[in-house]
Write a structure and sequence with these properties.
Elements lengths: L6 H5 L15 E3 L10 H10 L13 H11 L6 E4 L1 H13 L6 E4 L5 H9 L3 E4 L19 E4 L11 H10 L5 E4 L20 E6 L12 E5 L1 H11 L9 H12 L1 H24 L3 E2 L6 E5 L5 H10 L2 E3 L11 E4 L3 H12 L2
Parallel strand pairs: 1-11, 3-4, 5-6, 6-7
Antiparallel strand pairs: 2-8, 7-8, 9-10, 10-12
Helix pairs in contact: 2-8, 3-8, 4-5, 4-7, 9-11
The structure holds pyridoxal-5'-phosphate.
Pyridoxal-5'-phosphate binds next to helix 4.
Length: 350
């Protein structure tokens, strides 16, 4: 605390990301990173970018990257916004689109950065409880609202909302911006990007951090009607002209172009997820159906915090949230096969 702080800073409660331990040799299953390296094409693109060019500012509009993303989704470049990780894209979207007369709505259990952005930008919000199966019921979002934010698949549950339900939600809320955060969509869902032509109130946000193994490069993007995108560009142009550096833009383009590697790695993660789900269920865990690169699980007889500590003592790190409704759950990232095997071996020592 300091007397030099603004009132706003006194009131902020920042987001706390999962731990990035400095120790090596850990089985790190706590922050949903991809267990496979980025495409070799990304490494080559980064190498090519190293040189005298780093003297110069990057393209402030990241036009080449926007063109690659537009091409991947069959959209026009003016339907694409890019930012320094999807966290930054989300932050700009909250500021640009979500402050209106009514509170915005999001689930009681979801990505815990959403209430943090509301605190930063002075946005009123109301949480809508997930049902007993930890599923989003879109009919519960029929209240007057200044916008709706859903993670799909949701985090930390991993549950997927069907496209048909999102379509219904969009049609029922034509006056509200609806943000679908698709950080995990490539692990088993279908993107709402296909609904963009029908719904000018839809903003889809994705990231290269999870399914493209590029959490360290910080690249995220939004897809939407050109007028929504222009709103985001106005905030970005008032904040930082160069959110994506030359390396990030070059690496991102290469990652998007290597579709074969993308298909291979995401299918490997999905196959390991199903193996891990079965292994955990055989050991008495209750596992929420997941379409993401993690499983949200609990054991009816074992305390989640103690279980997390037991695993940590064996150098396996998973995520435990001390939050209402989910304090008996663990979120386990799908690792490589050997890492998941090590987790199961540790559980068998219980
Ligand atoms: C990981 C994650 C993000 C942030 O991704 P970055 O692009 O790395 O900032 C956003 N939303 C959800 C739900 C996530 O899990």
């Amino acid at each position: 605390m300091s007397k030099y702080w603004s009132d706003l800073v006194h009131r902020l409660t920042p987001y706390v990301p999962g731990e990035q331990p400095k120790l090596s040799g850990l089985v790190k299953l706590n922050t949903n990173e991809n267990p496979y390296p980025p495409s070799p094409a990304v490494m080559e693109a980064l190498q090519r970018e190293l040189g005298d060019g780093l003297r110069l500012y990057p393209d402030p509009n990241s036009e080449r990257l926007k063109a690659s993303i537009a091409d991947f989704f069959g959209l026009a470049p003016d339907q694409v916004f890019v930012g320094n990780g999807s966290d930054e894209v989300l932050a700009h979207a909250f500021q640009a689109l979500l402050k209106h007369e009514h509170p915005i709505l999001f689930p009681d259990i979801t990505y815990s950065f959403y209430p943090v952005y509301c605190g930063l930008y002075g946005i009123d919000y109301r949480t809508v409880p997930l049902d007993e199966e930890m599923a989003i019921r879109v009919d519960d979002y029929r209240a007057p609202n200044g916008g709706i934010v859903l993670a799909n698949p949701n985090a930390p549950t991993g549950r997927l909302l069907e496209l048909e339900a999102i379509d219904r939600l969009l049609a029922a809320n034509p006056e509200s911006p609806v943000i679908i955060d698709e950080a995990y969509i490539d692990f088993g869902g279908e993107s709402a990007a296909g609904l963009l032509a029908k719904h000018p109130n839809l903003l889809v946000i994705q990231t290269l951090s999870k399914s493209r193994s590029l959490a360290g490069l910080r690249v995220g993007y939004a897809l939407g009607h050109p007028q929504l995108i222009e709103g985001l560009e106005r905030v970005k142009g008032s904040f930082n002209s160069y959110p994506l550096d030359r390396l990030a833009a070059a690496g991102a383009v290469a990652a998007l172009q290597d579709r074969e590697y993308f298909e291979q790695t995401r299918h490997r993660v999905m196959a390991t997820r199903e193996w891990l789900r079965e292994a955990l269920q055989q050991r008495g865990f209750l596992v929420i159906p997941s379409s993401a690169n993690f499983l949200f699980v609990r054991h009816p007889q074992r305390d989640a915090a103690q279980l997390a500590q037991f695993l940590r003592d064996r150098h396996i790190i998973v995520r435990h949230f001390r939050l209402p409704r989910i304090e008996q759950y663990l979120r386990i990232t799908v690792g490589q096969d050997a890492e998941c095997r090590a987790l199961i071996d540790a559980i068998d020592q219980l």
